[in-house]
Specification:
Blueprint (H helix, E strand, L loop, with lengths): L4 H14 L12 H12 L15 E2 L14 E12 L5 E11 L3 E2 L4 H10 L2 E2 L1 H15 L4 E10 H4 L10 E8 L4 H12 L4
Parallel strand pairs: 2-5
Antiparallel strand pairs: 1-4, 2-3, 3-6, 6-7
Helix pairs in contact: 1-2, 3-4
């Protein structure tokens, strides 16, 4: 489903009037269209299948000798994303870290950021975003465990209310073997990489 940019532009024009602005003054003349174009990008994940990027797994069990299964986790850190908080329609942005324990199949590493982007490109809350990423990977791959850690700064915290510009929110979603806190301790240390 595509964003109705004409309707968004008309509504932004009405919003400018509602806050006491003149939408025809210099500087605001193209603002409704600019906002509509931005919303088209911000909400491009609505109606898209987040599992689609994972639909072409690669077998690690079959291949050149010796045939073997992965014994450790695949970890992709620092996947940058931006999303829009559904409570105030303000941006939040941060990084997602994904780890999974493969079964017989892995997925190209470029597929994981695509999953994050699709799910982040819709009105969201961070807690649900992490859970959706974990569920998508767990259901699409034969993963024995999935761990998703998100660290993000929210416009509703940094720009309004008590305005805490340095505050970030950390969430963890775990599936399979990583639901055991002991099993994920090593991964959390790897993901944090000694960063403070």
């Amino acid at each position: 489903m595509a964003v109705d940019t004409e309707r968004v532009a008309a509504l932004v024009r009405e919003l400018l009037v509602a806050i006491g602005e003149d939408p025809d003054r210099p500087g605001l003349g193209r603002t409704p269209q600019r906002v509509a174009e931005a919303y088209s990008e911000f909400f491009s994940g609505i109606g898209r299948d987040a599992a689609e990027p994972l639909s072409h797994p690669i077998s690690v069990a079959r291949g050149p000798e010796p045939e073997t299964l992965s014994s450790g986790a695949v970890v992709l850190r620092d996947i940058a994303f931006r999303s829009v908080c559904e409570h105030h329609l303000l941006l939040f942005r941060g990084v997602a870290h994904i780890a999974y324990l493969p079964g017989e199949q892995v997925v190209g590493l470029g597929a994981l950021p695509k999953v994050v982007d699709i799910l982040a490109s819709r009105p969201q809350v961070q807690e649900r975003l992490g859970e959706q990423i974990a569920d998508t990977i767990a259901h699409s791959l034969d993963a024995r465990g999935v761990l998703v850690i998100i660290d993000a700064r929210h416009g509703c915290v940094t720009m309004r209310g008590d305005r805490q510009p340095d505050a970030s929110t950390l969430t963890i979603a775990a599936r399979g073997e990583f639901t055991d806190p002991t099993a994920r301790t090593e991964l959390v240390a790897l993901i944090s990489g000694g960063r403070s």
